[in-house]
Amino acid sequence: MSKTLRGFLRQSSHYSIGQVLILFASLISFPILTRVFTVAEYGTMSLLSNTVLIVTAVAKAGLQNSIVRFHDEYSRGSQKHRHNNYLSSLLLGGLMIALVITAIWGLGTMVVDSFIDEHSMTFALLLVSSGMVFFRSAESLMLGFLRAEQQTLALNSYRVLVRYLLLAMMLAFLFTLSKSLMSFYLSQLAAMTLGLGALAWWRFRKHWPRFEHFSNEIFRIALHYGFPLIGFELVSMLLNYVDRYCLQFYLGADSVGLYSAAYNLSDYVKDVVVMPFASAVTPIYMRIWATKGAEPTRKFLENALRTYALFAIPLILGFAADSKTLLNLIASEKFLEGHVIVPWLITGLMINGAVPILAASLYIQKRTNLLVAFLGITTVINLIGNLVLIPYYGIQGAAIAKLFSYLLLVGMVTLPTRHFLGFKMPWTALLKYGVVGAAMYAVIVLAKFTNPLVELSVDFGIGITLYAALVATTDSKVLENVKESMNRIV
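-> structure tokens emitted (490 positions)
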């Protein structure tokens, strides 16, 4: 196992631990929200939250990506003496843009509401939740610095602490004020105010950004790099959420609630694997490219994808096997109808999770416009798929359209990386993991118990043991890495 790959796995482990703790908090809040709110209210909450995220994608202006991209240049390279200018320019400039977008969104909401005779609670919720646009944008900028500096422990400590703060505030507001969507969004605002204030004090307590250090040149360069990524993130958001808007249009809030519950549960599980890899991989391969060149970068990407698939495939199949039991146990019986779409959703989400690895050459070459084009094509195809399939297949049609769209996206972003770096898909390893995972799936679906907790516990134990044993006996590389790791421990 190379030193670089060990570093990648070490940083990924920091993200993994943090993500497991965040997942635990989500698994506490998720069943509470699905029981406090009706299916329709849960659908409305999903649409509102997704809308806030879409607006936030614009408000961030892509600068969180610029922070990572230019960090080494201004902290270690020829521009080291301008580090304070880099920090102040990107943070203060980013905050000003976020404030302007938040103000425009809030004013726009009030203007639209003024033309409606019957004032809707949805508009009031949008107005209150618009504050989250600024807070989420500011948080993304600050965490961008921690990510660029590879302060994975600090970054994940913050993410975990603020997630539990959000949970505590949510419980306090829902069960002391009212069990309403308004209380939910007010609790989010209160928690983000406290969490973001603490993060700002901790990160910048020694060197606060100052307006006199603001550099128009640095900000312009950063914006030039990051601005196309607004399109990237915005189109990514539309790709992720357009199905909810289509479901609302065709079938109403109840269908959005069913779909969102199944999607959110799949997304929580997906994040255990995807977030650690996606967050750690980009800074590492950017550094390898800058210091060692193309061939080491190619080898690292192939090893990273192989490692990702090793964990992703059993998660897809194991979660698909137990989706009905999990959804009934965690979300409640009123959302059980959504279990049929879980296999489609988790497969698509995990395939999409490999994009940061497969699209590496586009990030390295700064071909962000091409990324936006690929995402735009995928989003249009996804929209067409939803418009065609939802009237006939309902929520399952939306899930099928999502999976097909992610497959298309992965195929498109892989081609430039193959051409530029000579990247090769580890098809043999993928096939091995798929066959082993299928064997695991077959065993899990046969294990049935009346108690859902017992069934899930047994399935998890059997599944992980069987998969690990079969992979270790069929994949020599995995076995070598395990032996090397054990020798280091001993």
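The two ends are 16 Å apart (CA to CA).
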